[in-house]
């Protein structure tokens, strides 16, 4: 029995019941695939169901405000995915008459859609012969065939795509692609894979050579950057506060947050520094909300965060009641703080 047939047989018996597996609608497959990038299925499922409820068609998503899209995405991270999702929905509605491209060649041109996502949509929705290669597939192929090329190197990416194409199941590409990803997630997992019951164990190179724990190989990650975030929570005479929208490129683009000081701040220099950020606010008193920094870990940076409460006897122009803060799309770091108020 071939490698691909074993994967298919395993999938038939072990596949999870997931909401996007009940359809081949390209809009919903696209939605699920974008959400599951860098996200565990357990976390992504509730977000998928929420988006499906609020935006049942691509027209609904295209016609929504970016603020609503970001609010529903809140907590899922990697917010560029949400912005690209919204941009692409509008592009398909406005320029393609709401019709999803039905080939890999056209799908990969969409903003936010790379090789993997285009291959997944093309194969699952349109039955096109395209092999998917995601983190799960890299792991299965690297272990089974004993490949020690780094999966995040140029050479490795090309090699694994070629290998995946050579071994894919051409007569049932739709289930095979979902099957090999499921196999990597459940059977050939990153830690403690279940090799004892694996249908591939008799011919797995990694198992034979005791390389299961070392494959796949990945080049060292980028050095983690440390950043000091100090949020200024202004409270005015009537109990309102203020938010600002992050502009420009970078993390949390277009999300809202309290005025930010990115610096090393203490009770000695806080007055001098907040005056630069809030020149029009006359602060009467301030307190440090959290003595110990809240460490928020992102993929390439760790944010050491403090919240400062600044009181003013004035009334803020465009002040926001604390009860209204929940309406704004904010980073999860801010959302967690708001919950404590």
UniProtKB/TrEMBL annotation:
Binds 1 [4Fe-4S] cluster. One of its GO terms (molecular function) is purine-specific mismatch base pair DNA N-glycosylase activity. Residues 35-186 form the HhH-GPD domain. It comes from the Bacteria. InterPro entries: A/G_AdeGlyc_MutY, DNA_glycosylase, HhH-GPD_domain, HhH_base_excis_C, HhH_motif, MIG/MutY, MutY_C, NUDIX_hydrolase-like_dom_sf. SUPFAM superfamilies: DNA-glycosylase, Nudix. It is an enzyme of class 3 (hydrolase). One of its GO terms (biological process) is mismatch repair. CDD domains: ENDO3c (cd00056), NUDIX_DNA_Glycosylase_C-MutY (cd03431). Its EC number is 3.2.2.31. Its cofactor is [4Fe-4S] cluster. Keywords: 4Fe-4S, DNA damage, DNA repair, Glycosidase, Hydrolase, Iron, Iron-sulfur, Metal-binding. It holds the Pfam family HhH-GPD. It catalyses: Hydrolyzes free adenine bases from 7,8-dihydro-8-oxoguanine:adenine mismatched double-stranded DNA, leaving an apurinic site. Belongs to the Nth/MutY family. Adenine glycosylase active on G-A mispairs. MutY also corrects error-prone DNA synthesis past GO lesions which are due to the oxidatively damaged form of guanine: 7,8-dihydro-8-oxoguanine (8-oxo-dGTP). This is Adenine DNA glycosylase.
């Amino acid at each position: 029995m071939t490698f691909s047939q074993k994967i298919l047989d395993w999938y038939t018996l072990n596949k999870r019941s997931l909401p996007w597996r009940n359809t081949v609608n390209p809009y919903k497959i696209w939605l699920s695939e974008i959400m599951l990038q860098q996200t565990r299925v357990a976390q992504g499922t509730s977000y998928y169901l929420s988006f499906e409820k609020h935006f049942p068609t691509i027209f609904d998503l295209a016609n929504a405000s970016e603020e609503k899209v970001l609010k529903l995405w809140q907590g899922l991270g990697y917010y560029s995915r949400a912005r690209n999702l919204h941009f692409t929905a509008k592009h398909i509605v406005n320029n393609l008459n709401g019709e999803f491209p039905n080939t890999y060649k056209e799908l990969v041109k969409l903003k936010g859609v790379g090789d993997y996502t285009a291959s997944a949509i093309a194969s699952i929705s349109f039955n096109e012969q395209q092999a998917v290669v995601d983190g799960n597939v890299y792991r299965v192929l690297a272990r089974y065939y004993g490949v020690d090329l780094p999966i995040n190197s140029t050479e490795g990416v090309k090699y694994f795509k070629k290998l995946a194409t050579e071994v894919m199941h051409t007569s049932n590409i739709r289930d095979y692609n979902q099957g090999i990803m499921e196999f990597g997630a459940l059977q050939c997992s990153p830690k403690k894979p279940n090799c004892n019951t694996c249908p591939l164990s008799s011919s797995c190179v990694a198992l034979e050579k005791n390389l299961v724990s070392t494959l796949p190989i990945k080049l060292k990650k980028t050095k983690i950057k440390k950043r000091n975030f100090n949020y200024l929570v202004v409270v005015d005479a009537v109990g309102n506060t203020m938010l600002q929208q992050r502009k420009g490129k970078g993390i949390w683009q277009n999300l809202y947050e309290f005025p930010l000081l990115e610096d090393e701040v203490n009770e000695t220099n806080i007055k001098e520094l907040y005056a630069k950020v809030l020149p029009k606010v006359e602060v009467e008193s301030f307190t440090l909300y959290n003595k110990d920094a809240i460490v928020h870990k992102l993929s390439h940076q760790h944010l050491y965060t403090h919240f400062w409460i600044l009181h003013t006897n004035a009334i803020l122009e465009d002040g926001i009641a604390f009860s209204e803060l929940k309406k704004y799309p904010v980073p999860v770091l801010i959302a967690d703080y708001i919950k404590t108020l």
